């Protein structure tokens, strides 16, 4: 294992994050505050509690997930797409590193960034609503696993993308709808029965449900299934990345 | 000297079907500077990319220090440094962090003193904390070299390192290359500037159409292929070459005031003495005599013409 290489990639990628720390910090705080003002305070005050949880607090896990997922994808995809775009990928391809070391470096850095953003949003949420996290360890584990698995997905998108539009395409057209329709702002049980069944094909439902369980102890889907789903998703991404490096798909001519 | 890089019958066909290397073979000796010459699209960069692991090879074998580049990729790649043709650098990062990244990526522990020394050799030390984007083109090229040297490679590939670089920097780079050779680094250089190969290379390899046409010691190549010419300026122009001088195959300048004699420096008899005597006998008076030797560039052009380019 080339630990020096992992550390070099991780440090180099984190430096990018620290260079834009203000934007990294202000943007999620601002957008979360807006969500709380609109959905939490203005609309939420006229809404009934969901599963015994005040609506303002109910949306917290979904809001965190929304940001963490989109941030993970955009950080990781940009992290590996940028070297491809400016040509510095030559160094990575000619270095004595294997795919696992590259992935740990890039995905590790991207996941760290989105974990930071997730925690910033959680901190912001405390300013607006009363929160009592019932399973803190499970909450952190879910958060970490989500950062990790969506950073892996982002890494794949970054390698696949041939231009900046494609880079934004998946987060915009796929992830945002999946997150919005995955129960970020409502409980699945609020939907008509037919749509409840349809929703179960949305993988994001399992993540948000599991994450919400860690907060409030209630969930749409059993916690074990949630964990299994996210584990399976992580493995699938890892497998795909292993294949990418084995075949050189889109990176090695 | 032993062979450090061995390329045996390497073929490379890109996905689009273009065959960039058609069975190229080349042995590079440890400690030498070898220049890879060839026109655009000859396969120079593809050959380098394949050895360095950026492109995969379609068939054939490449070993570095006796190790296969695919099976022993960790050991092989740790020995190799690459300066790419295109300037590719993270623009927002500082010079020193870019160089640190390269050292770490190639698995070497931190060594700030060594990196400082590289930066000093390349006259980059005072730009250490500057962002790459703020540097001039020539300076960026130096950063690429510093990155390639950061992990103390034994073999260095320089893919057109002086393209678009001013004369002073070019000379600086030649000095750096000579210094590296002194430290035992093997250097493989591709260039369009034949004078560059002439100035620094020990051996010349000519590649064209994906094949290595020739590999030869530079001095031997120049001696073998080299022609020398004498240009004689006449005091009085002549309408035609006197018949007495016909055996020399002289060329008469359009204004009739100059004669050019081409001879082979390796020939036993160059015929110079005879020519000068016969000139006098023919009653021609000389104003000036110049000699000139064909450069590597002329040799290169001749070679490619023979190859049908």
Approximate helicity band of chain A: over 70%
Number of domains of chain A: 1
What's the tally of helices of chain B?
Answer: 10
Main beta sheet strand tally, sense and closure of chain A: none
CATH class bucket of the largest domain in chain B: Alpha Beta
Q: Tally of extended strands of chain A?
A: 0
Q: Low-confidence spans of chain A: pLDDT under 50, at least 5 residues?
A: none
Strand order of the largest sheet of chain B: 6-7-8-3-9-10
Average residue-wise pLDDT of chain A: 90
CA-atom Rg of chain A in angstroms: 19 Å
Shape descriptor of chain A: globular
Shape of chain B: elongated
Gyration radius over CA of chain B? 24 Å
What does this structure look like?
The complex is a heterodimer of chains A (253) and B (309). Chain A has 253 residues and is an all-alpha fold. Chain A has one domain (3-247). In chain A, 77% of the residues lie in helices and 0% in strands. In chain A, helix 2 crosses helix 5, helix 3 (55-86) runs parallel beside helix 6 and helix 6 (136-160) packs antiparallel against helix 9 (203-216). The longest helix of chain A is centred in the first third of the chain and has 32 residues, at 55-86. Chain A starts with a helix and ends in a 6-residue tail after the last helix. The model of chain A has no long low-confidence stretch (mean pLDDT 90). In chain B, strands 6-7-8-3-9-10 form a six-stranded mixed beta sheet, sandwiched between helices. The model of chain B has no long low-confidence stretch (mean pLDDT 90). Chain B folds into two domains: 3-220, Rossmann fold (3-Layer(aba) Sandwich); 227-293, Alpha-Beta Plaits (2-Layer Sandwich), CATH 3.30.70. With 309 residues, chain B is α/β, with parallel strands linked by helices. The longest helix of chain B has 16 residues, at 167-182. Chain B has helices at residues 44-52, 73-79, 95-105, 112-121, 137-149, 167-182, 194-200, 218-225, 272-281, 296-306, and strands at 3-13, 19-29, 33-37, 59-64, 67-68, 80-83, 155-159, 186-191, 203-208, 211-217, 227-234, 251-252, 258-264, 286-293. Chain A binds chain B through residues 2, 4-5, 7-9, 11-12, 15-16, 19, 82-83, 86-88, 90-97, 248, 252-253, and chain B through 14-15, 49, 52-56, 73-78, 80, 82, 84, 86, 88-93, 97, 100-109, 147.
């Amino acid at each position: 294992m080339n630990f020096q290489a992992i550390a070099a990639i991780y440090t180099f990628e984190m430096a990018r994050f620290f260079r834009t720390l203000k934007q990294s910090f202000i943007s999620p705080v601002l957008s979360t505050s807006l969500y709380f003002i609109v959905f939490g305070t203005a609309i939420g005050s006229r809404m009934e509690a969901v599963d015994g949880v005040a609506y303002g607090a109910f949306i917290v896990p979904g809001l965190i997930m929304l940001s963490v997922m989109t941030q993970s994808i955009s950080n990781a995809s940009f992290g590996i797409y940028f070297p491809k775009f400016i040509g510095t990928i030559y160094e990575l391809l000619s270095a004595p590193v294997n795919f696992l070391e590259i992935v740990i470096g890039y995905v590790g850095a991207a996941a760290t960034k989105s974990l930071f953003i997730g925690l910033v949003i959680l901190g912001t949420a405390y300013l607006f609503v009363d929160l009592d996290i019932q399973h803190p360890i499970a909450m952190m584990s879910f958060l970490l696993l989500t950062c990790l698995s969506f950073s892996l997905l982002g890494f794949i998108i970054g390698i696949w993308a041939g231009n900046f539009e494609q880079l934004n395409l998946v987060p915009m057209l796929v992830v945002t709808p999946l997150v919005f329709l995955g129960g970020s702002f409502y409980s699945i049980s609020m939907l008509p029965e037919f749509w409840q069944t349809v929703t179960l094909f949305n993988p994001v439902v399992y993540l948000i449900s599991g994450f919400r369980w860690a907060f409030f102890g209630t969930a749409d889907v059993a916690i074990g299934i949630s964990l299994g789903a996210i584990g399976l998703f992580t493995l699938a991404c890892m497998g795909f990345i292993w294949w990418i490096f084995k075949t050189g798909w889109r990176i090695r001519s | 000297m032993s062979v450090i890089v061995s390329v045996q019958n390497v073929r490379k066909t890109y996905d689009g079907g273009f065959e960039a290397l058609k069975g190229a073979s080349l042995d590079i000796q440890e400690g030498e500077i070898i220049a890879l010459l060839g026109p655009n699209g000859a396969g120079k960069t593809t050959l380098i990319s394949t050895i360095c692991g950026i492109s995969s090879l379609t068939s054939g074998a490449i070993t570095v220090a006796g190790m296969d580049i695919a099976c022993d990729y960790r050991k092989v790649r740790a020995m190799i440094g690459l300066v790419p043709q295109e300037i590719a650098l993270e623009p927002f990062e500082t010079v020193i962090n870019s160089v640190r990244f390269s050292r770490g990526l190639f698995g070497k522990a931190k060594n700030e003193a060594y990196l400082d020394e590289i930066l000093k050799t390349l006259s980059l030390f005072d730009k250490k904390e500057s962002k790459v984007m703020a540097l001039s083109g020539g300076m960026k090229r130096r950063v690429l070299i510093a990155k390639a040297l950061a992990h103390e490679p034994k073999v260095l590939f320089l893919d057109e390192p002086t393209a678009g670089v001013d004369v002073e920097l070019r000379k600086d780079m030649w000095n750096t290359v000579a210094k590296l050779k002194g430290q035992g680094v093997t250097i493989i250089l591709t260039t369009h500037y034949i004078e560059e190969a002439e100035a620094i290379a020990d051996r010349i390899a000519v590649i064209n159409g994906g094949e290595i046409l020739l590999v030869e010691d530079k001095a031997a190549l120049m001696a073998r292929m080299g022609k020398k010419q004498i240009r004689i300026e006449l005091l009085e122009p002549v309408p035609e070459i006197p018949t007495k001088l016909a055996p020399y195959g002289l060329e008469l300048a359009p204004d009739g005031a100059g004669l050019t004699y081409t001879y082979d420096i390796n020939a036993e008899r160059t015929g110079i003495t005879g020519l000068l005597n016969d000139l006098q006998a023919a009653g021609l008076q000389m104003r000036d005599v110049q000699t000139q030797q064909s450069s590597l560039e002329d040799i290169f052009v001749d070679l490619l013409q023979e190859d049908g380019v």
